[in-house]
Structures are given as C-alpha cells and as structure tokens.
C-alpha cells in the first residue's frame, strides 16, 4: 500500500507565517508590508483554489484603500479624515485575517495537533487549540440551522426584531445554547475515543514534515519582504 501523501504546507509553517505577518503588519511601520501580505494571502487562496477568498480579500483591500486613501483626497473633511484613520488599521486586520483564514481552512485539528506535538507544545495547549478548530464549524452550522428554523416559523425579520429585540435575541440564544451543549457532549466523547486524555504520546498517521512547498513559501516571503523594504511605500 502506498503511503499517504501530505498535500500543502506544513502546519507549523502556516502558524509561523500567520504569527510573523500579523506581528509585522500590526507593528510600527506595518503599512509598508500590508501589500506584500495581501499578495501572499491572495496567492495562497488561489493555490488552494479558494476562489471566494481569492476574490474577497483583494476586494476588501481595494475598498479600504479607496475609503482611506483616495476619498480623502477627493473630498477632504473631518468625516473622511476619521474614515482614513480607521481604514489604516482595518486594512492591517484584513491582511492578517486573510492569512488566518488560510490557516483555519487548510489545517485540520489532527494536523494542528500533530504539528504542535512536534514542537513539544504542552498537551493542555495543543488539545485546547485542536478542540477550538472543531468547535467553530459546529457553532456556525448550528447557528445556521437555528436561523433556518426561525425563518420557517416567521420569527426572523427586521420588523419583528425592531419591535421585540429582546424576544428575538431570546428565540435565537436559547436554542443555540441547547445545540451547543449537545455538540459539546459529542466533541467530548470524540476526544475521549481519540485518546486525547491519555498520557501516552499519540502517533500521527501523516507526521508533519517540511517539504518543497514550505521552501517555496519561504523564498516567496523573502522576496516580498525585500520588495516591501526597497520599493516605494504604497500606503503612505
């Protein structure tokens, strides 16, 4: 039987990439590196064939650039100046979130746990992060199911929410809490079956290893960083 091939980047590479790029763009002088991080996030989305993210990330960045840099030149006033200040920070968050979305979309909890174990991260931290990655999709699907049920009963609408905001929040929150408790029990049983509470070190079926994609990404990051330093600053 042929061994299972590990596609994509090593999870440790993606974690380092997200932390490093987030720290750079959110730091002093981080606007210089925002275009490079946006290009990197869009390229990763295209590589993974996530077309929604590949189109949405540049669209959000262009919209923030128009509101924060172009509009104040055409219509200078207090409102556009305040908007420019807000967009100068929002575009940094957009660049960092683009890479974070790639990490979440392409890294399963099993791969994340294997990567953290290879780093000798304490079990309490690795298990918590792996469970968090499983909880987010469950919460999203449960909230969508609750909203669909409310919509079928005619309980969702701007008019009803405006008239009875507390009642509308209650109709959504109470079923959501019950669904989350059921999902939590299922996840707890799944973690016990997977042996996450065991003191033995589990063996990964596909152990994380650095490969050619990680080397290509490192070279691309170095080229983009050099271009951001030596080329004229776009977001000034």
TrEMBL record:
The keyword Aminoacyl-tRNA synthetase does not apply. The chain crosses the membrane at residues 15-39, 51-71, 78-104, 210-231. Keywords: Cell membrane, Membrane, Transmembrane, Transmembrane helix. InterPro entries: ABC/ECF_trnsptr_transmembrane, ECF_transporter_component. The keyword Membrane applies. Pfam families: CbiQ (PF02361). Coiled coil: none annotated. CDD domains: EcfT. This is Energy-coupling factor transporter transmembrane component T.
């Amino acid at each position: 039987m042929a061994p299972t091939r590990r596609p994509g980047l090593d999870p440790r590479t993606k974690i380092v990439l997200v932390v490093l790029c987030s720290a750079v763009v959110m730091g002093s002088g981080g606007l210089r590196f925002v275009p490079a991080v946006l290009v990197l996030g869009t390229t990763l989305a295209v590589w993974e064939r996530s077309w929604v993210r590949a189109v949405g990330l540049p669209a959000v960045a262009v919209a923030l650039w128009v509101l924060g840099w172009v509009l104040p030149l055409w219509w200078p006033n207090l409102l556009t100046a305040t908007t420019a200040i807000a967009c100068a920070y929002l575009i940094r968050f957009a660049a960092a979130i683009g890479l974070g979305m790639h990490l979440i979309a392409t890294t399963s909890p099993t791969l994340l746990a294997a990567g953290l174990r290879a780093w000798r991260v304490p079990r309490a931290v690795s298990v918590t992060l792996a469970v968090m990655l499983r909880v987010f999709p469950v919460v999203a699907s449960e909230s969508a199911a609750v909203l669909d049920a409310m919509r079928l009963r005619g309980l969702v609408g701007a008019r009803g929410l405006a008239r009875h905001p507390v009642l509308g929040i209650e109709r959504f929150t109470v079923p959501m809490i019950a669904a989350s408790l059921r999902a939590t029990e299922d996840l707890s049983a799944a973690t016990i079956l997977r042996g996450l509470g065991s003191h033995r070190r589990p063996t990964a079926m596909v152990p994380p290893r650095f490969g050619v994609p990680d080397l290509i990404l490192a070279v691309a990051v170095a080229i983009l960083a050099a271009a951001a330093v030596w080329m004229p600053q776009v977001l000034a």
